[in-house]
Amino acid sequence: MGNEAPAVDPVVESTAADIAAMRIRGAAAIADAAAAALAIQAERSDAVTPGAFRTQLRVAARTLYETRPTAVSLPNALRYVLRGTDGDSVDELRSSTIDRAETFREDLEDAQTTLGKIGSNRLRDGDVVMTHCHSTDALACIEAALDDGKRIEAIVTETRPRKQGHITARELREWGVPVTLIVDNAARRYLDDADHVLVGADSIAADGGVINKIGTSGLAVNARERGVPVMVAAQTIKLHPGTMTGHTVAIEMRDETEVLTSSERSEITDLEDGDDGFTVENPAFDVTPPRHVDAIVTEHGQFPPESVVTLMRELFGETTTEPWET
Ligand SMILES: O=C(COP(=O)(O)O)[C@H](O)[C@H](O)COP(=O)(O)O
């Protein structure tokens, strides 16, 4: 009995379920929600000893960590909060955790605002920007350019299979930006009308590789061929410290039902018991090699992808065991 993992707060469970089901999605939003959930866990903890409090918090962090594998902003957020949990009593641990989570969330918002201003310098009045998926970091650059009085137009890829491009289109329209929505396969054709490709990132590897929504790498290759610069807007919580020591970024594979319905499946296979020779693959992300990226825009400035490792070392130092693994 005594060895059972302690129950975590229902808010942690529901946040984890929302992240897994993509009701909360996008790397920054996931990090923000995870930090908020840890703060609630701390606030409502029924632990009576410091040890029990820490164990409960670690279990909560692990529950959140296990939702989606690709956006490093999630473990970066969890690590940041857990490493700030400090004190000798439950009350001290509680308040330090809540403070740390609040600081994280404020910094996240500030970083995005700063990044937006830096990134907006790359956008000129009258520019046409092609976007892929929905990235709050990328949109922050457009918002800052609009605030500076620049006129910006957007070509927005639909982003199959989840169509996050619709979220981008809606947001841009709310800001009055003229939007042309295209299917992903039309991107190359429309690149001739674009001055920039602007995307976000779920993780940035030490070699400058950019892990973002599936289709980003193909878009970047096409953009390079067309001579359109590719700009990645990514706060430093998207930097993946594990890649400094040789780890690769796990690419999430999602359910085939996002790609085709069961009736579409049966139209293809026409077999009630399934068909071993028919598989659907649904990777959610891909890796864009650094040579296809012109700049990574962070709240610390713009970097050629190959030099991002220096920033990574500065910010994360040497990586150690994750606090929720101990
Ligand atoms: O790939 C996605 C979202 O994928 P999903 O919809 O599968 O979560 C976004 O481009 C990044 O997460 C960056 O977003 P942000 O800049 O908002 O962090």
From TrEMBL:
Task of the protein: Catalyzes the isomerization of ribose 1,5-bisphosphate (R15P) to ribulose 1,5-bisphosphate (RuBP).
Family: Belongs to the eIF-2B alpha/beta/delta subunits family. R15P isomerase subfamily.
Catalytic-site annotation from UniProt: C133, D202
A Pfam short name: IF-2B
SUPFAM superfamilies documented for this protein: NagB/RpiA/CoA transferase-like
Catalytic activity: alpha-D-ribose 1,5-bisphosphate = D-ribulose 1,5-bisphosphate
Lineage of source species: Archaea, Methanobacteriati, Methanobacteriota, Stenosarchaea group, Halobacteria
Name this protein carries in UniProt: Ribose 1,5-bisphosphate isomerase
